[in-house]
Fold these 4 entries.
Entry 1:
Amino acid sequence: MREHDLEVVADGEALARKAAGYVTRIAGEAIAARGQFSIGLPGGSTPRALFKRLASPAWASRIDWARVHVFWGDERCVPPDHAESNYRLARETLLDRVPLPPEHSHRIAGELAPAEAARRYEAELRAFFAGGEPATPQPRFDLLLLGMGEDGHTASLFPGTAALREMARWTVENYVPRLDSWRVTLTIPAINAAAHALFLVSGAAKAETLRAVLHGPRQPEIYPAQLIRPQAGRLLWLVDRAATTRL
Ligand code: 6PG
């Protein structure tokens, strides 16, 4: 891992502030270049502070939300108002507080059967990124925000699960035995097609996993986050100091 791909900040709040700077910068560049900005959001707890900051008066005006399209890197197979819903987290902390056109929020339909939710999301991605052409290589998100679990998963690509081996589809349903639950997730090739992939990792609990992922032997079945390497894009790990104590 080239050192300049890793940026260390003091704590969770600094992480949210620095990440908000990246989001607004990349959004401005994409909108200036192509008139729109496509971003994929993660779930979990780490992005909450970032979402709140982006929705704050000091930050919300820095993005032309009318030109933004919001997607998700993954979703739990639950209804959109469920406490576990990644969509609900983003809606409550960010989307309901900024002037994003409702039709620019492209959620994964967690309320549907997993396979149908994955199929519909892939169709929506193809319609957005490729005009629906089936032959299009991959969805090129301007920015994909990613988290990393203590077990080394990212999005809903969990260790030892079937989704790790999907190299053709952009979105798949994925049963996670450890959680005894279904997820829908972007696949490795879909994530690696992004122009920018930005990991947000915070807290001492992830320090050993971060070491193993960045400096340990390549074991992607055990540490799926090691599979994230944008082919023609930029990968940045934005981490707080507590997460770097084992590096
Ligand atoms: C999800 C996320 C997942 C998350 C990691 C880290 O649906 O849970 O997309 O990949 O980013 O589990 O979660 P925390 O930020 O809560 O540590």
Note: The first strand starts at residue 6 and ends at 9.
Entry 2:
Amino acid sequence: MSTSTDVPPLLDEPRLRAGLASLSLGSPLVVTRRTASTNADLSREAERGAPHGTVHTTNHQTAGRGRLSRAFEQPDGSGIAVSTLLRPEVDLSRWGWLPLVAGLATREAIILAGVDSNRVGLKWPNDVLVDERKISGILVEAVNPGGDDWAAVVGIGVNVSLADHELPVATATSLGLVGGSTDRTRLIIDLVGALERNLLTWHAGSSVVRDAYRAVCDTIGRDVTVTLPDGSTLDGTATDVDGEGQLVVGRTPVAAGDVIHVRRR
Ligand code: BT5
């Protein structure tokens, strides 16, 4: 029997739980039919003391948050929204790397979904691009219920089966549009697994994550215009990402900002 709307299949919750069972992330796991924002839900849980590794996901995120109060929009069932609560035993000064580590993990999951690795790049600090179009956005929010009790909510959204006319902005794309798998359940399993692996490497404090990021970051080597949080802009060539995860433009390290890729040098 056909339904009145063409909503893609729901997440296969038993398969999702089985696929995450061997990981330390994903326990506990909360799966909802719909919610406003998985990051908002998990931030509230973090305030109440939810444990490291808690994951929230939903079939339909109706008010997804982007950075700077922007929106991240996906029609019902067409994407994934995954938030993971971390209480990293790493000095706060290194937490600037979290969105970048999440970007590396998301890139791996997109490659596992069948997209050729040469097509998948990272735009500093938090976008994953396929053929230079945004397929995924990442939002890391710090939560501090009090004292030294800091946690991070790592939110990742990936466009899965959106058709051309469903893309919220012309510069976006989806796995379906680039020939990847549209199995959302598999994608979440691969994504959480990749996040766990990359976090372990980051925890170890090695330069491996930084080298891996620099190797696939599309922003490095480009002429860029960066809009800084105070509204001013900085033009120059992006030369590196430093040990704190900051983009180096010319000789100026930038901790946060919106980057426009102008052209390759
Ligand atoms: C982001 O912000 O891209 C972060 C998105 C994070 C979403 C995840 S989903 C799970 C978790 N729960 C949440 O509530 N959020 C996180 P930003 O870099 O500010 O980009 C936002 C901009 O991307 C918008 O202003 C649009 O231009 C564009 N955009 C909106 N929806 C998009 C989509 N589905 N695909 C590509 N671009 C999109």
Note: Residues 37-39, 61, 64-68, 70-74, 81-83, 126, 134, 137-139, 155-157, 159, 168-169, 172 surround biotinyl-5-AMP (CB under 6 Å).
Entry 3:
Amino acid sequence: MNDVLPEEVGRWQKLERIFRSLVELYGFREVRTPIVEDTGLFVRSIGEATDVVDKEMYSFERHRDSLTLRPEGTAGAVRAYVEHGVSKREPVTRWYYLGSMFRAERPQRGRYRQFHQAGCEVFGEAGPISDVETISMVYSLMTNLGIEGVEIAVNSIGGPGTRARYRDALLAHFTPKLASLSEHAQQRLQINPLRVLDSKDPRDIEASQGAPSILEHLEDADREHWEAVVAGLQALGTPYCIEPTLVRGLDYYTRTLFEVRASSGQLGSQNALAGGGRYDGLVASLGGPETPAFGFALGIERVLLAMPEEPQRVAPLCYVAPMGVEAQRLALVAARELRGAGLGVEVDGRGGSLKSMLRRADSLGSRFVLVIGESEVARSVVALKDLVAHDQQEVALAELVARVQALASRPVETTGGPA
Ligand code: AMP
């Protein structure tokens, strides 16, 4: 679990801002749900025999209830959607969320126990449009964040009918290889053989070679949906690659699945930036009406690792350097006036030498320093130093705001030196 210090927060805010403004263009509105939910909610939605539920949940007992710190955002969003009868008010609902998630995983670069996700859910649309638009939206988001060369893997795991057929085919593939599978996969094979395809264990990866492709087992309606998704991505020019072994770790998915990966850079094995898919059965299984749905979540820490570095410094525009007690009073008033006009100000409160105050202004990156000494106090003026234009002038307090605004909006003329 990490602290995010102010030096890094600027990048978080940039990501959050770009995320919000893009998804709002698609009609998504923000929802905020609790960080703690009933444990049963996650067991029922994410599914037993998943890594998250079996090994990674932070669960605890209180007043005989079993509660869990949310490991992902969809279960809580669906619970809220059902609990507030949202489907009765609107036929289609688009929600987005941002927040902390918790999984007791083995930490490594890009994998944390408290991490943050930004995600979207569309409720009420069964057709392929929401699949195509959402996947393409995530691609645009990565582009808007300056992340290049992402890879988008897509697959369909069909509906329950397709999966029953595929399950038989997978059992036929894995059963003769049972002894070579990891213990974990051996246990999972009967519960959900798709899980074995999702295993990271080298023995299971080896045994999965040559496994039948689910895309060859799609029922007609599932295939029609899948073909329309692929055609839509093509029409929008959203790059994708079809990956028949992509099954993803959560049980609630149906039909389209996708994962966005960083193709290069610092992420190593933790290169999944975002993932999601269709979950047409989940709302009903959590007690709501039959409601098709599509959603995704991106990992904020991972996306930040993939985003290009750029220097980010938010310096107050003005630094006020008062010398003496009376000067401090004038400094307070000057600062209030400037801030009232929306200009950033830091007032020196240390009372050191002018030199040390100028050094502080310089290291902050402030453009203006307001020097106030006894003679300035006596005349209600400040000495306004422009550290960029290397210029100084005396300004009456009453004119300070207008003068700073005028100087700040004027391009600085630099003389001499190479361009
Ligand atoms: P998931 O909910 O497992 O589909 O994950 C969606 C995204 O969340 C992944 O693609 C990652 O970017 C991110 N993510 C999942 N688990 C972690 C974790 N433990 N630490 C950091 N990011 C994570």
Note: The first strand starts at residue 29 and ends at 30.
Entry 4:
Amino acid sequence: MGDRYFLIGFMGSGKTTLGKVVAEKTGYSFIDMDREIESGEGISIAQIFSKKGEKYFRQLEKECLNRIFNLKKVIVATGGGVPCFADNMEQINSNGKSIYINLTPQQLKVRLQTTDLTSRPLLSGLDDAGLLDFITDRLAERNVFYSKANFIVEGENDDIIIDKIIDIIDSEHQQQRSYF
Ligand code: S3P
């Protein structure tokens, strides 16, 4: 079961960036759910939202998760909303280990401002103050789901968080070995 690690957290928390580094350093494969969904549909996330709606996108996320449950030795960057819909969080915890990258609204805002906000349909059109308000409100709602994670990691910078995630994976392996 510990062969699948799901990185969960708000948009901009670094699930993709950090997940790729962790996968490289641990020898796991890496999957980004948003990229999987985009390649399956042949259009961007923003286009899926605008052409087919959020409900359709959330269904695609569920189907994508179910496919991932068949893979082994994989680090998964989930989309920020994945844990918060249907029974996804319970399914994730039954089929692997979840790691919540827990950043403050201010940290998330700074990180998101270095990205193209129009690629994230929930954020496009927000100005500076609007972005912080949106993050603060939505994070408070979503923390109900994110806090169900098996592990929670925090940190001032990417390197600290990467080391913490790798420590979690290493210690899970040591525990598994000690059962034999
Ligand atoms: C979303 C997060 C996005 C993407 C979509 C919706 C969300 O992924 O799945 O725009 O509901 O939080 P990232 O967390 O990778 O930005």
Note: The pocket of shikimate-3-phosphate is lined by residues 11, 15, 34, 45, 79-81, 120-122 (CB under 6 Å).
